[in-house]
């Protein structure tokens, strides 16, 4: 993972709109940022045991952004937590900017995977969780996916495998705006619960609910369906 020597910057959640406003242009995917911003903030501020000074710690928590389209919120949250200077946001998507339309782990400090191809993040997170457990690490793996992304067949085997192996160090958060092909209320929660996951539904903008769900460690993998309105996503 790319690292930076920039010191942490004391931004708060209230500063995020100003950070987001620094990113301009036609490729903003602003609705995608609105749908993921609260989950990303709570993850990085309250949950992940990871920071710029622990970027190379083998026992750091991992976060995989599988929902890689529209990474504005991810970049704003990373800048707010000191992974790179906020000035990087001003020329995002320019030809020489490290901040592209899809995060590149070789260019973006704080990005664990290169995202964009939907359906890859969850299987990669399962493999990472297995490896961490195999060497006795207490690190956890969190992955953020879109609800429609879960239509990709590559996720089915990952969901079944993680449940069968009781990967207690794995948490999946789906931003659920009911855009999946076979959408119906509660479908995502039921799908994961059927495979042995601890599965819950929450309001995707409710910080205490997000925090509580993400800090749950029931001895098996955790799935969180974070509901948002279609206009937000």
Question: What series of H and E elements makes up the topology?
Answer: HHEHHEHEHEHE
CATH architecture of one domain: 3-Layer(aba) Sandwich
Distance between the terminal alpha carbons, to the nearest Å?
A: 28 Å
**CATH-assigned fold name of one domain:** Rossmann fold
What's the quaternary structure here? single chain
Q: What is the topology, as strand order, of the major beta sheet?
A: 1-2-3-5-4
Fraction of helical residues: 25-40%
- Specify the CATH homologous superfamily of one domain: Thiamin diphosphate (ThDP)-binding fold, Pyr/PP domains
CATH class of one domain: Alpha Beta
Shape: globular
What is the radius of gyration computed over CA atoms, rounded to a whole number of angstroms?
Answer: 17 Å
Bin the strand percentage. Answer: 5-15%
Low-pLDDT runs of 5+ residues are none
On the 0-100 scale, what is the average pLDDT?
A: 89
Estimated structural class: alpha/beta
What summary fits the major beta sheet? 5 strands, parallel
- What count of helical segments does DSSP give? 7
In total, the number of strands is: 5
Write structural notes for this entry:
- The protein is an alpha/beta fold and 233 residues long.
- It has a domain at 121-232: Rossmann fold (3-Layer(aba) Sandwich).
- Helices cover 32% and strands 12% of the residues.
- It is built from seven helices and five strands, in the order H-H-E-H-H-E-H-E-H-E-H-E.
- A five-stranded parallel beta sheet has the order 1-2-3-5-4, sandwiched between helices.
- The longest helix has 18 residues, at 30-47.
- The radius of gyration is 17 Å and the shape is globular.
- The two termini are 28 Å apart.
């Amino acid at each position: 993972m790319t690292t930076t020597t920039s010191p942490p910057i004391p931004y708060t959640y209230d500063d995020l709109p100003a950070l987001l406003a620094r990113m301009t242009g036609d490729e903003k995917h602003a609705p995608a940022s609105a749908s993921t911003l609260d989950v990303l903030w709570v993850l990085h501020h309250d949950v992940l045991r990871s920071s710029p000074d622990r970027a190379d710690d083998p026992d750091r928590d991992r976060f995989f952004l599988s929902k890689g389209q529209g990474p504005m919120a991810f970049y704003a949250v990373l800048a707010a937590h000191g992974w790179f200077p906020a000035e990087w946001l001003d020329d995002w998507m320019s030809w020489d900017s490290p901040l592209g339309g899809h995060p590149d782990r070789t260019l973006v400090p704080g990005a664990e995977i290169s995202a964009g191809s939907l359906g890859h993040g969850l299987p990669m997170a399962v493999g990472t969780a297995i490896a961490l457990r195999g060497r006795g690490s207490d690190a956890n793996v969190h992955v953020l996916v879109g609800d429609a992304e879960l239509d990709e067949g590559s996720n089915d085997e990952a969901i079944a495998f993680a449940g069968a192996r009781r990967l207690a160090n794995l948490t999946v958060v789906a931003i659920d705006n009911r855009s999946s092909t076979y959408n119906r209320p509660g479908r995502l929660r039921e799908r994961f619960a059927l495979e042995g996951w601890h599965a819950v539904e929450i309001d995707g903008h409710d910080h205490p609910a997000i925090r509580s769900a993400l800090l749950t460690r029931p001895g098996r993998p955790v799935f969180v369906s974070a509901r948002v309105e279609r206009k937000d996503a």
